[in-house]
UniProtKB/TrEMBL annotation:
This is Sulfatase-modifying factor enzyme-like domain-containing protein. GO terms for molecular function: formylglycine-generating oxidase activity. It comes from Kuenenia stuttgartiensis. It comes from the Bacteria. Residues 240-470 form the Sulfatase-modifying factor enzyme-like domain. TPR repeats lie at residues 128-161, 162-195. Pfam families: FGE-sulfatase (PF03781), TPR_11 (PF13414).
Length: 476
């Protein structure tokens, strides 16, 4: 502990007594005045070096020995000791509490940066609203990673927008980040305590926590990722086969939906095989392990981005510890590389639609009537092939819901108007690749077998996975 300053030492007192005894007054008076000046300097130094504390609630200032605010009992917080005027930004001197020029109460310098100019605040609110609407648009298009980026920008410039935290809570729950979802939903409750849906939001928070606990229990079944994957692969390699789609014609597209799916037209396809199930975490784990051990990119797309290791985004996330979940957050280049490594390829858009639709112009893989029990639109992941009643006439599972699936084709909104009637493979070039089938986050109309959607080939998204196809060798 620091020692307190003692005005008189024992030696000083003895010396003064000696001077007084001998009546040397002319020495005593100057010495006494010198001592007073010294004491004043020390006192000023103690004031300047004192740790100033402040009440974070009412901003009242206190000295070293105070711990709680005398007004409201709030625990005091330390400052760096420098107090400035919030108007002129000049530092106060000594023990001043108010600016001598403006009369404003001095505040700790670290609080100065937190004070916002009204014009800056208005600009930030406007910018946050722009990013917020941008994120909403991305959500409507199921581009969840892009939506999150926009929402985070909005939060950075203005963090007190209630609707923003509500939507971020919803989005994080869709992406499987329960902790972040709960955090933002609780911020929404704080910022909008009188909102009519507060009870509903609190109930949703409770459900999220319960679902998260169930996921943890599932994950704890597996001692390690490698052990779980190797064991699951033994089963999957026996079960996950391909189905033969015979050569022939089928009706592709529809005249009863968006323009990009029009017109309905007849297409002839040669025979091909397509995976019965979507590619799983276990199957993709085997591919990632191979790339790590060999660094063999000979099967990869020749123009893929530099430095790819083909790991899904957030590969260490607990989602990828469950072997039977469909692999997700893989971009088109990842899907292409995996398929080529397996001696297969990605299906064309026409091949995907025929495998899902069959020959009777149905709206969903199971038929024309909507039935939510036949596909996974729950928002929660399920093992591939979980919904037996939702398979297509050829026996392909999860072609509605679960995850969107990458196709090989470039996207063109007008392609159906000029596409060839025999084995169409899409435009020669483009900016976006086709994805089909909807995801567990989709709405019913988005999982129709004719619904077309596209994304950039380098996009990682929790809602996108894939399955493979391959040519059938013609026997002569």
């Amino acid at each position: 502990m620091k020692q307190k300053y003692a005005p008189f030492t024992t030696t000083t007192i003895k010396f003064l007594k000696l001077l007084l005894k001998r009546k040397h007054w002319f020495f005593v008076v100057p010495f006494f005045l010198l001592w007073l000046n010294f004491v004043a300097l020390k006192a000023d130094e103690q004031i300047l070096n004192a740790t100033i504390k402040m009440c974070p609630k009412c901003n009242e200032l206190y000295q070293n020995n105070e711990k709680f605010c005398g007004k409201d009992g709030t625990v005091l917080s330390d400052t760096n000791g420098k107090l400035v005027c919030p108007v002129c930004k000049k530092e106060g001197s000594g023990n001043e509490k108010f600016c001598v020029e403006h009369g404003e109460k001095l505040i700790p310098i670290e609080r100065l940066s937190a004070r916002k100019d009204p014009a800056d605040l208005e600009r930030n609110m406007s910018l946050a609203a722009k990013y917020y609407q941008e994120g909403n648009t991305h959500c409507d298009n199921e581009s969840y990673d892009l939506a999150l980026k926009s929402y985070l920008k909005a939060e950075e410039v203005y963090p007190d927008l209630p609707g923003l935290h509500y939507n971020m809570g919803w989005l994080y729950s869709k992406l499987g980040d329960v902790d972040s979802a709960v955090d933002h939903l609780q911020k929404y409750i704080i910022l909008a305590p009188d909102s009519k849906d507060i009870t509903e939001v609190r109930s949703y928070i409770a459900l999220l926590k319960q679902a998260h606990q169930k996921k943890i229990e599932v994950i704890e079944k597996y001692k390690s990722r490698d052990e779980a994957m190797e064991k699951a692969l033994e089963i999957q390699n026996k079960k996950h086969d391909t189905v033969l789609i015979p050569a022939g014609k089928f009706s592709m597209g529809t005249n009863e939906a968006r323009d990009v799916s029009q017109p309905e037209h007849v297409v002839y396809l040669d025979a091909y095989e397509i995976d019965r199930y979507e590619i799983t975490n276990a199957q993709y784990w085997e591919f990632v392990k191979y790339i790590e051990e060999t660094n063999d990119h000979s099967k990869c797309f020749k123009d893929e981005p530099i430095g790819k290791d083909h790991k899904p985004r957030y590969w260490e996330d607990e989602y990828y510890n469950v072997p039977d979940y469909p692999v997700a957050r893989v971009d088109w280049y990842d899907a292409y590389a995996y398929a080529a490594w397996k001696g297969k390829r990605l299906p064309t858009e026409a091949e995907w639609e025929k495998a899902a639709r069959g020959l009777d112009v149905r709206a969903f893989p199971w038929g024309n009537e909507w039935d939510h029990t036949r596909c996974n639109l729950s928002g929660e992941p399920m093992p591939v092939g979980s919904v037996e009643s939702g398979k297509s006439m050829y026996g392909c599972y999860d072609m509605s819901g679960s995850v969107f699936e990458w196709c090989n084709d470039w996207f063109s909104s007008t392609y159906y108007q000029y596409s060839p009637s025999i084995n169409p493979t899409g435009p020669e070039k483009g900016e976006r690749k086709l994805i089909r089938g909807g995801s567990r986050f989709s709405r019913p109309f988005q999982v129709r077998v004719t619904e077309r959607k596209s994304e950039r080939p380098d996009l990682f998204n929790m809602a996108i996975g894939f399955r493979c196809a391959k040519d059938v060798e013609v026997k002569e």
